[in-house]
């Protein structure tokens, strides 16, 4: 009597594994190729838009350089030097090549290469937006969960009103009121800028610029007096931007959680006797985190690009304040350079959020 052999031959298993790996590689390569192509197309579109803005705004870059009292010959010479007398396609090709090399021209405002100004200003914006996003996530996600669990009851109403106020109030107005109360009247926080004037010399002498973040660099250098003084200055702008981020994240978290709490798997978990805390904070929130990742990434990107008014109010020497000052000075090179950097940051954050899908949601893999 013969018996069928149900055990797998090791050699056969290895062959099946090799075949599966071979079929997986083209899919990975195809997905990587699509992502890379999408990234290149998006960056190209960003450069087209910024170039069009530079040509459509009623600002003459050559006139901004030479001034209104220059002669016509001087004006024409500068215009030719900047390449503005060439055909538009040639100007765009030159602009594209310069940006690819990281050359955004020189700033009329600082007389330095724009890329150097951006490198000096961007860490301050990154520091501010990062801390504000962390604050928004730590408070906004729990607030959204609590609001969804208590739908229609007083905690839901209170949290929705708090979120609505943060989402509706102009950031610059909230910043001015916060400065007036917490700095002008109560003196609980530091004023505009990143440091008190009395600490600026200590910062230059005792702090090594490892990252450009004043908190990280002062901590790594052991300059704790500078560190704690910097905290008093960054606390208020972080609160203002963090409140805006909190309002948006809590609102979206509530929406995602309501959708998940109405699913059949939540009902089944409750019927099986799974503790309510685990149902809400593990099962429902775990599934809600998939779309929430995109919300957090977009909120972070919005703070990077939307911190212009906040940095202006708090005299925060970041990229937003740099772009604002350049705009008032008709410094198009600086404005376009800062705009391109923020646009690239926006694209990179969207790409990272897509990659995180594969970590949070196994179905995406």
From TrEMBL:
Annotated membrane-spanning segments are: 36-57, 128-149, 161-183, 226-249, 280-303, 334-360
MF terms in GO: dipeptide transmembrane transporter activity
Which InterPro entries has this protein been placed in? BPD_transp_1_N (IPR045621), MetI-like (IPR000515), MetI-like_sf (IPR035906)
User: What keywords are assigned to this protein?
Assistant: Cell membrane, Membrane, Transmembrane, Transmembrane helix, Transport
Q: Where is the ABC transmembrane type-1 domain?
A: 122-357
Q: What is its main location?
A: membrane
Cellular component terms per the entry's GO annotation = plasma membrane
- One Pfam family in the UniProt entry: BPD_transp_1_N
| Compartments it resides in | Cell membrane
Question: How does the UniProt record describe the way this protein sits in the membrane?
Answer: Multi-pass membrane protein
- Per the record's keyword annotation, is Repressor included, yes or no? no
Q: Give the family this protein belongs to, as stated in its UniProt record.
A: Belongs to the binding-protein-dependent transport system permease family.
For this entry, the protein name equals ABC transporter permease subunit
Q: Write down the species.
A: Jiella pacifica
């Amino acid at each position: 009597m013969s018996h069928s052999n149900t055990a797998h031959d090791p050699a056969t298993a290895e062959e099946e594994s090799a075949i599966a790996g071979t079929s997986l590689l083209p899919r990975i390569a195809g997905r990587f190729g699509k992502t890379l192509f999408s990234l290149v197309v998006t960056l190209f579109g960003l450069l087209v838009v910024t170039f069009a803005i530079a040509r459509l705004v009623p600002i003459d870059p050559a006139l901004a350089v030479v001034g209104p009292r220059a002669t016509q010959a001087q004006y024409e010479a500068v215009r030719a030097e900047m390449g503005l007398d060439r055909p538009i396609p040639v100007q765009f090709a030159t602009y594209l090549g310069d940006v690819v090399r990281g050359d955004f021209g020189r700033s009329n405002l600082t007389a330095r290469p724009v890329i150097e100004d951006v490198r000096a200003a961007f860490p301050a914006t990154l520091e501010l937006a990062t801390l504000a996003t962390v604050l928004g996530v730590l408070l906004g996600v729990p607030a959204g969960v609590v609001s969804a669990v208590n739908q229609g009851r007083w905690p839901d109403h209170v949290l929705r009103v708090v979120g609505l106020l943060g989402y509706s109030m102009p950031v610059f107005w909230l910043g001015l009121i916060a400065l007036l109360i917490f700095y002008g009247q109560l003196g609980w926080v530091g004023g505009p800028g990143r440091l008190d004037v009395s600490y600026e010399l200590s910062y230059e002498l005792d702090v090594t610029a490892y990252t450009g973040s004043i908190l990280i660099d002062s901590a790594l250098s052991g300059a704790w007096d500078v560190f704690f003084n910097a905290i008093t200055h960054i606390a208020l702008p972080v609160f203002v931007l963090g409140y805006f981020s909190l309002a948006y994240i809590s609102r979206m978290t509530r929406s995602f959680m309501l959708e998940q709490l109405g699913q059949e798997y939540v009902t089944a978990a409750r019927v099986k006797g799974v503790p309510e805390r685990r149902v809400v904070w593990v099962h429902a929130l775990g599934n809600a985190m998939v779309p929430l990742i995109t919300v957090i990434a977009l909120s972070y990107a919005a703070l990077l690009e939307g911190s212009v008014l906040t940095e202006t109010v708090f005299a925060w020497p970041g990229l937003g304040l740099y772009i604002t000052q350049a705009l008032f000075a008709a410094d198009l090179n600086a404005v376009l350079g800062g705009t391109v950097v923020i646009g690239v940051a926006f694209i990179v954050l969207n790409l990272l959020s897509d990659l995180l899908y594969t970590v949070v949601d196994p179905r995406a893999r």
